[in-house]
Amino acid sequence: MLRLNKNKAWNRLAVELRWRLMMGWAAAGIIYAPHASAELYFDVSDINESSGNTANIDSFKYGTIPEGTYRVDVYVNQQYFLNQEIDFKNQAGLYGLQPVLTVKEWENMGARSPGLTAEKDKNTKLTDIGRYIPGAAAAFDYNHQKLVITIPQAYLNTRARNSIDPSRWDNGINAFLMSYNINASEGRQRDDDTQSDSLYVNLRPGINLGAWRLRNNSSYTRNVQKFDSVFSNRTRYVTDKWQSLSTYAQRDLVSLKSRLTLGESYTPGDVFESFTFTGVQLASDDNMLPDSLRGFAPVVRGVAATNAQVIVSQNGAIVYQTFVPPGPFALTDILPAANGGELNVSIKEADGSVKNFIQPFASIRGMQREGRVRFSATAGRYRSFYNGADKPAFTQGVAQYGFSNDITFFGGSIVAEKYLALNGGIAKSLGDFGSVSLDTTFASTTLKNDEKKKGQSYRLQYSKSIPDTGSVLSVAGYRYNTSGYYDFAERNQMNITNDDSWQWQYNKRSGLQVSLSQSLSDWGNLSASYYQQNYWNTEGIARTASLNYSKNINQITWNLSLLSSRTPYNPTDNQIAISVQVPLDQWLTGARARYSFSHSDDSGTSNQVSLNGSLPWAKNIDYGIQQGVNSQSHANGGVSGSWRGSAGVLSGGYSYSGDSRLANVGLTGSLVAHKGGVTAGQQIYESGILVHTPGASGISVEDSSNIKTDWNGYAIVPVATAYRANRVKVSPGDVDTDADVSNPLTTVVPTRGALVLAEFETNIGRKALVRLMHNDKAVPFGARVFIDRKQNSKNITMPFYVGDNGDVYLTGLSDNESVSVEWNEGEVTVSCRTNIETGDLSRTRKGIIETRAECR
């Protein structure tokens, strides 16, 4: 028999410390020896001597905690998997509680073995997983509410790393959503007493129904100008415009890892130029892929002589590690640390020998992993907001195929009544020399006067990343061989009439784009870009060149920017800007001071100083103060502020420049109607989370912008990552509330556009620290206290455990709560009942009642 004795000099411990010690013995080291042969025994004599009553730890002395249902974080081979409620039971021959999981749940974790396959009923519940998966084990860490599952690599399927089984993707609840952005301003010109008022409203209503998402994006603008004229002392000029920007319905097609769109949307821009349309589209959605399969990475191939460990590193960081059986292997789910460079591959054999080789790679836009097919198919009618634009019916198809480890083929077509375009191309990794792609587009166009044009476009792209020096170079060149080449947007918008019509009156001849970023290590960062577009019908060009340098010295940020730009109708404008930003945390928490100088050929010189930050005692309130002067000696400045709350964001400001004055106010947020009521929140951009703490208001959502549950127990988390595990944690904080959250952490995996419900179990009632007495003695340490209550429409029994001196912390109490208590004295179970009256008792600052009760 293994006997654990404590030092006789062990002093009297506080309730929580002693409780954690007992739970630590029961739930930490013991559970990692599931097949130990010695019986574990605790000597409780010291507890008895120090507390004056008989300690009762029968529930723990055999290395287990009480059987039951616990919400835990599940880790599989040290990787976080999910958070959920799991039943735990004792299993003969194993120390510690064992999880009760179905065959399907084990398979969802990636387990595969003949033992699992032999179970025909996937809902069969298993406790001793070692019988079904050799070498597998489950360890319950009660202190951290964590279940650690170990599955040998040989019994794991080949699913990509960090992938989440689509069965866990949550389409969310049915709901009506309305996100809004409202801005209003009033401006005055003092020299001529002109007043300009404006209102902008952007509404994004939507309906979620199962997997379907119905969305609309509309805006309303109103401008009012008031000025004196020769006809009237006060003339009022009003313009109103309501515009529906897009309306569409979408849903996932999980089996194709794609999305179906019906309505008004836009085409992808990876092969042809993107444009808006009204119609139907089916397109791949890379967000559905796990991180380890997104983007381009080479397939690493090799041969292992034994059961070997393969380690892939880049720039000194391990980016992939796995075990492979003897023979050839191919690693397809590597997630590189950079978009090119060298992968260092090490094969560590079972005998200790190591083989190393280097695999260079480079990526360019459009490259796909070997065997990966990315596609889009669109049919509909061209859509434009310009007056005079043609809107022909069309079909478009685009595909990209990862033919091999370093070659991707791609192409597509656009077919319309008076337009045809065919594209074909290839992208190739050149290893240490970067990557390159070349494609050709043939287009046949019939203009409005029935004149027919034909032409070709040749596009060359090059990309090179040098991780050792921090350099990334990307070059894209376009050249049109004949003036008869028109892309689909040019053909449809050449007759528009507005200020931007020059873009469409001249068809493009050649274009060049160059971008370079360079890390200078301790000397900062440098980036540069150049863009030039030439046209067939004019000698004018569109050109933009920029250079940016930034450097951080002792948290002081310096920045230098140079910009030169022109269009065919406007002369060149050269600009320079210099800024320095200094943190002021030593004097004013969260504050930053900034000075900036700028000069432009068009607008002259300007000097600005500003102070920005958030209030030290209210981090959800931001402020800004600016003051400056320009080359015309006109002073300018202003103040601004914003408040972020659970129901939205309110902002406002006042500014002046010379004789001009402008005041503005803004409000952004969202409203969600669901079966639980109507909830106000911050703007929902795509996927969101609806937090629910039944009956509990004022509960904070951690890691959020001052979001708390409302009077109905709901709150909106406006941002969630689709197809990824999003952890949601709530905390009552310092709120004096009668609510207690049973488990404050949960995990949700929303689909794109979903509003997922994250519901937490709450105990509503008084919180009390009760000293339980029985026959004038404190109830023994470890005794169990039971309260019957209803939770989520179910009758459940909540267990609590007595600490030192008969003290027990209870939550969810009514004014007069009946509780039962039981413990073991030798072979005899002792039980008693008592009523705990809390209605007229005062509370501590934390809202806790301290009282005592006699158990009979």
UniProtKB/TrEMBL annotation:
Gene3D superfamilies in the record: 2.60.40.2070, 2.60.40.3110, 3.10.20.410, Outer membrane usher protein FimD, plug domain
Location(s) in or outside the cell: Cell outer membrane
Main location: membrane
Top-level division of the source organism's lineage: Bacteria
Membrane topology recorded in Swiss-Prot or TrEMBL: Multi-pass membrane protein
Alphabetically ordered keywords of this record: Cell outer membrane, Fimbrium biogenesis, Membrane, Plasmid, Signal, Transmembrane, Transmembrane beta strand, Transport
Domain PapC N-terminal residue range list: 41-184
Domain PapC-like C-terminal residues, every copy: 770-836
GO molecular function: fimbrial usher porin activity
InterPro entries: Fimb_usher, Fimbrial_membr_usher_CS, FimD_plug_dom, PapC-like_C, PapC-like_C_sf, PapC_N, PapC_N_sf
GO biological process: pilus assembly
GO cellular component: cell outer membrane
Protein family per UniProt: Belongs to the fimbrial export usher family.
Name of the protein in question: Fimbria/pilus outer membrane usher protein
